[in-house]
Amino acid sequence: VGAGGGVVVSCFDRVTLALVHDAAAAVPLGWLLHSRGGPLTGERCRRVVDAAVRAGFAALHPPADACGAELVEQAHAAGPAGNTWTANAPAEMVRLAEVGVDAIITDVPDVCRQVLSRRS
Known about the structure:
This protein is α/β, with parallel strands linked by helices and about 120 residues long. It has helices at about 15-25, 40-55, 70-80, 90-100, 110-120, and strands at about 10, 30, 60, 80-85, 105.
């Protein structure tokens, strides 16, 4: 597989991500997390980040409602990028930018670009 230039293969299933790694070790992997209501904090947050590091994932992708400063800070300290999905409301985009996410997955990239450019 000759992927390059910002490609990240993302999936909810860690076994599938391991298979992708076996087939194309150079391709960065992102682990999509399911929402469980509210930000990932405390022990749950540490377990998720630790599992991502052990698996060698380049990024964690929590849903917007589970993404908070604690998760992003722990991910950054351990290595993986902290991205989030799917944020379509401008206020949510601003909140996520303020907690330090590396990327926002959205259905409205034009809106996201406008909202974030106003912050600079």
